[in-house]
What we know:
alpha+beta, seven-stranded antiparallel sheet, globular
Amino acid sequence: MYELTKGANVDLAALGESVESVVVSLDWTSATGEGDADVSVLLLNTDGKVRGDDDFYFYNNPVAADGSVQLLGKSPSGSGNKDRISFDLSAVPADVERIVVAASRYAGARFGDLDDLQLTLADGSGEGLLRYAIEDAGSVSAFIFGELYRRGGTWKLRAVGQGYDTGLASLATDFGVDIDDDAAAEQELEATEREDLDDGTTGTTPDADTGGAAGRAADRAPGEALDAVPAPRRPEAAAVDAPLRPRPRPRTAKKKVTLPKAAKKTLAENESWKEARLFPVSVLKSDRDRETRATSVLLSVMAQVPEFGRRLTAAFGAPAGRMETFTEVVLPCGDSPRRPDGVVRVERAGKLWTALVETKTNGNALRAEQVQAYMDIAARRGYEAVITLSNDVALEGSPLVDVRVDGRRKHRVALWHLSWAEVAHQAQLLIRHEGVGNGAHAWLLQELLHYLQHENSGCHGFQNMGSAWVPVRNGIDDETLCQGDPRTLEVVESWERLIRQVCLRLGGELGQKVLPVHRSRRGTTAGARRSMLANQLCAEGRLQGEVRIEGTPGVLVITADLRTGKLRTAMDIPAPVQGSPLAWAKRLVRRLAEAPADLHIEALVEGEGGGPRGTLERLRPEPADILPKNGVQITGFKLSLFKNMGSSRGSAESGFIRSVDDAVHRFYSTVVTHLDRPAPRRAPSTALAPAG
């Protein structure tokens, strides 16, 4: 992999052959697991300015209409996060000369607090081509990692490494993004906060960043300005067709079609009448029927709903273009032709991108020899990818199937995996939150989602904790489980898959970023981290996972105690800065008026393991009971709910997987939704006017 240093540049054509479609990843780690940043992309003309506000892409405007830019979102990576952006460079408009890739932090956080910052670039096959490691981010709240730019008809990448003390808004205005619309929202937000403070019920808000932008990059040509990106739009209420109450989301850049907030009044005479469906499941009798139907249903909707098809294929290096999909294709392979479950083809500017699709449903495992055969066929025929699709969830450093790659072949084939849970997640995001182009597309996605969620479709996501689950639980019960038992590692991997699926389901329902948190020492590999957790499981009999939900005041911790058969969902929330401890306790109990009576509340005290605790039912008449009697300083509160753990491996109502999903759903919907939101992401008041 080519190593780039600050200020240096490289021609992409010199790195590889397949560089018209590339994926740029921004990585970082955090010792606490709580470090986060938001990616931004700006398209600039020859004047170094955006052509309009639509040339700014961020978490609430993630996709370009022409497919040239698509923010693929965050995924866990080691002890941090990886945020990926897909670029179809052949689709970038001719009057765009530069593409700036930046990120920003908020609420007083700085990039110097993060470790292992780097930018990496991969080609359309997923092969890593370039790495730029950043060692001097410093105390800045916005940071330009790099930029893609045209020179002599080719694309180059420059390692920029420039920071902005004044945050995202200053970076944005320097590039000509108009963010005047945010001024009124900012004033309204500040007025609301002042009212809350007058009541003595909330803490202080973080100070806004002040000061000027950092200096220009040293390697920039004369007359070229390198500055920065805009403040995200202020949140408004989201339209969510789900039992959970989501946090407000920023408004979208364009009006799109989403599902209505409430279902239309039915014309059926009684509940026994079933609504006619585009994709019926009643005829499915065998696994082969389920695989064939699921493949055909998914691929047909991908071809008919461009936003959905592009969302699923961009991460695999596919260009933006006309998509066609096929099923039961016969391909020659020696004496016995092969029939992959599906084929996806994307055409752009006369060039074809092709992927073979291998599908499994109902918990059936992928077969390594079958996937290997498709990889060999794809390599011989010049196809770009093989996509496997099953209920399983792929993990970093733990492939679902092992395939052999012939290094003598010049043409490389990428192997990608997609979970049915991720397919449903992307469909939910589009039809419930982000919107699609028209009502027909929204209806098609709704029918697809209904099909995937039907109990007979076989497309329910990760459903089985594996063959090691029962022996490990029995070994913990009778204290015969030994350190180093390989079955504990299998259970830890299954647990990690389950937590990732919980994040997908909750994130799709809320329309917000929900990511697992991995805490480990800097430089620790995924395999070493799982081995450590396996030893911990053997010693303590507990599995623990952490989930960060955008817009919540803390990390949600899920603990499965295999010795007691109990599940605990908990969140630590910090104490406000202003007010007295008694006011904090009263406000917390008041905010949790609709929470379950069996909610456990514990005071977190400075320098001690824990303070007084009690159930919400007991604390409602006298909140002061949660306060330490010795006057020690309270640092926060721990909120916890307990429930019995399902015992079976599968997806029945009493199953372990279902019980974990239900526990997280209950804790969020009955507890977290009533808590104060964390400090908002604020733009500096001095940066709300566009630069000349």
